[in-house]
Specification:
Oligomer: single chain
Shape: globular
Distance between the termini: 30 Å
CATH class of the largest domain: Alpha Beta
Largest sheet: 5 strands, antiparallel
Number of helices: 9
Number of domains: 3
Order of helices and strands: EHEEEEEHEHHEHEEHEEEEHEEHH
Length: 301
């Protein structure tokens, strides 16, 4: 098979592993810088150009689109879909998961456990938003933040009000969530491929840090998840419409709650923690499922 990967940094661990796994199974994988693509949007003959040359027709495309280039990256991926190339994750699914507010609304619609989440535009509703989230402490999140950036723990009503009003004064969109104290600064990252759980790890934040992101000095160990946690992760992936994703959950007193569904999960932490060949499982999934013109959502939101 001839596979394209949309990625800006070919040297990242995840991208190197996917390329190695594909080549080990006899495929070719070209890493294409998403921002260097440009498109000819023409009826019945969609084309993508890269570095001055028209791209050949690929059997599959692996989107590893950075959060900062989501808009353009999804446009490029849609062009691949229009050309009949099989996408590992479809543009609609990635778009859903990248919109934090929309993803929460979709998960809530499907009855999946979530922390209490509130959202408002008018700063005058600040006190009511904090009250709806259960009162301080609360977690204030930028809708555009990634890897723990733009996530603030407000310990008191006063600090929560100050943080929310500061963000709104800067005209950025935020949501406010209840703080799951019993999680103790740890969360669970569950990796799914093709709707099946293939690995799970528990991530713990660095000393004094409530965020457990590995990019922020956290650590990870392999764990066995409960049947309820497994079912929650599978349902969350299905809600987003993602074939491959990482579902981040907290263990609360009322069961697992989903914090985020990541459409481009990093492989380094989970492969090192579990010893499982995630990259190989992803390529195997592509082998079994890649068919021309098989995009399921057909542009549905």
């Amino acid at each position: 098979m001839k596979i394209a990967m949309l990625a800006r940094n070919a040297n990242l661990y995840s991208h190197r592993r996917l390329k190695e796994a594909a080549e080990a199974r006899g495929h070719t994988l070209d890493i294409i810088n998403t921002l260097r693509c440009y498109m000819n949007i023409v009826s019945r003959r969609p084309e993508i150009y890269y570095n001055g040359e028209k791209l050949p027709l690929y059997d599959a495309v692996i989107p590893r689109i950075g959060a900062s280039v989501t808009f353009y990256g999804l446009a490029v991926l849609r062009q691949f879909e229009m050309m009949g190339v099989y996408p590992l994750n479809e543009s609609v699914g990635i778009g859903r998961s990248r919109d934090k507010l929309r993803s929460m609304q979709l998960l809530a619609r499907d009855g999946i456990g979530l922390p209490v989440t509130t959202f408002a535009h008018d700063p005058k509703q600040t006190e009511e938003v904090i009250r709806l989230a259960g009162g301080a402490p609360v977690v204030v999140k930028l809708l555009e933040g990634t890897q723990g950036i733009g996530v603030v723990l407000a310990d008191t009503e006063r600090s929560a009000k100050s943080v929310i009003e500061a963000f709104r004064g800067a005209d950025v969109n935020i949501m406010v969530q209840e703080f799951i104290k019993e999680a103790g600064g740890t969360d669970i990252r569950v990796l799914l491929v093709g709707g099946k759980v293939v690995a799970a790890m528990k991530r713990s934040g660095a000393e004094g840090e409530f965020r457990s992101n590995l990019h922020r000095g956290g650590s990870a160990v392999s764990i066995k998840i409960s049947p309820e946690e497994r079912a929650t992760a599978i349902r969350a992936a299905k809600s987003m419409g993602l074939n491959v994703c990482g579902v981040d959950m907290l263990r609360s007193n009322h069961g697992p709650v989903v914090m985020e569904v990541n459409s481009s999960p990093g492989l380094e932490g989970v492969e090192n923690a579990t010893g499982i060949d995630i990259a190989g499982k992803i390529i195997e999934f592509i082998e079994k499922n890649a068919k021309p013109n098989s995009t399921r959502t057909k542009g549905k939101g």
